[in-house]
Amino acid sequence: MTFNLDAPLYHFNGEHAFTTRQACEGVQILGGIGSGKTSGSGAALARAYLRAGFGGLVLCAKKDELETWQGYARETGREDSLLIFDNSGEWVFPFLQYEIEREGEGAGYTENIVRLFMTVHEAISRRTGGGGDPYWTSAMQQLIRNAVDLALIATGSVSVPVLYDIVRTAPQSMEERFSEQWQDESYCCQLLLQGNSQNLDKWAQYDFDACAAFWMREFPAISPKTRSGIISMFTVTADCFMRRPFRQLFSEPPENPERIAYPELTQEGVVIVMNLPVKEYGDAGRAVQVVYKYMWQQAIERRNVRENPRPVFLWVDEAQNFATEYDMQFQATARSSRACTVYLTQNLPNYFAELGNKDRVHSLVGNLQTKIWHANSDPETNTHAAEVIGRSWQTRRGESQNFGGQALNFGQSSNESFDYDVPPQVFTRLPKGGPDNANVVGGVVFQNGRSWEGNNTYLFATFNQR
Ligand SMILES: Nc1ncnc2c1ncn2[C@@H]1O[C@H](COP(=O)(O)OP(=O)(O)OP(=O)(O)O)[C@@H](O)[C@H]1O
Ligand SMILES: [Mg+2]
Q1: pLDDT tens digits, residue range 51-93?
Q2: Measured in angstroms, how far is the CA atom of residue 67 from the centroid of ligand 1?
Q3: How far is the CA of 332 from the centre of ligand 1 (A)?
Q4: Is 298's C-beta closer than 6 angstroms to any atom of ligand 1?
Q5: Is the same domain home to 104 and 21?
Q6: 35 CB under 6 A from ligand 1?
Q7: Does any ligand 1 atom lie closer than 6 A to the CB of residue 431?
Q8: pTM score > 0.85 for this model?
Q9: Domain of residue 75, CATH code
């Protein structure tokens, strides 16, 4: 298969080309509940990406996402490409082991693992209310950094259960360090002794000394209230990987190395469906998918597109569940790594509630260059759409009203005003598909800098549901 960036993947209204290059610049689909996001524009693009031979990663918020993708794969002859990652354990991904063993610059460094945890923390603390305060964030980073270093130096490996045990058995007071019971029972103490007895080179010895000083001097000296706050920030995050089914799927060494769901598989055309829906597994389902997405994004950024030219997609319906800070960075490099992101969500307030900050939301939505708006009753989303499309001089017919058979005109019969090309209220009336609309979904498509028919900056597009 050859992959030409300028070959059309799809034609809006059967005539306006949508190319791989444009797909790499990202797509944001917005529309109210039941407006036709999934069955209209979403289905059209998903089938196009599959037909073109793309690999991809599909995150699952709803339980029916898998079934939807099995349908697309059937319709496009891609059934053999699906890799269903679910709770059966058929596929696993021991993510910390992958992170320290993978090839490439930066592998094995503690900071990558710290960032990984902070990304999960960011995604789930939005719900639990923590996070945001720089003191706590840096305290948690310090805790993770020292736990990872201790595990790596003492055992040569790292896993979530090991980090968890280190933190759980760390000395809680200056006195406890000297108690025989702590020395006999603490896993943290055991690893410190193990690390101490190793023959380390100069640099590893410096790392170990700093880490031993943290666990033996700094950590027990923190005030109990602060310390328990830091520990609970860590355990809330780590917990997601400690329980069934996620411990087996993400934290333990794999029984069968052939069944590790490497993110790199997508470059060979595999479509990985993370069938661990948030609706079913809650925050843990969200946390593991956020980790997988983050590691996939990094793997795709590392790849050499000359050796591996196949475009890949990231498909995220109900995207507010999974959006993170890193998405903005990822979008900046997406074209050179041939990664086609599609985010679907109902409205902007969904993003505001999850990302906590309007600037971040505008940066995320602004970075996804193709926007498709479906019917919506959210005024903020509709006004934003109208603003993005822009204003120009409009000629509108003057208003008139019929009073007892007599037409009464207000003002001129026509007047000029500088106004929205597509006023917000238009978005409340777009067809939502289903039998009432002959299974046709309507949407407004916008691409920065592109003009469509009639020199318009937007296109009214229709999508047939099947
Ligand atoms: N294949 C189909 N043929 C005809 N109608 C359909 C089809 N799939 C869905 N519909 C109907 O079309 C409408 C749009 O559904 P769709 O699931 O695409 O909306 P959505 O925007 O994805 O909604 P949500 O936010 O709930 O995910 C709904 O009324 C739905 O019942
Ligand atoms: Mg949907």
Answers
A1: 999 999 999 999 999 999 999 999 999 999 999 999 999 999 9
A2: 14
A3: 32
A4: no
A5: no
A6: yes
A7: no
A8: yes
A9: 3.40.50.300
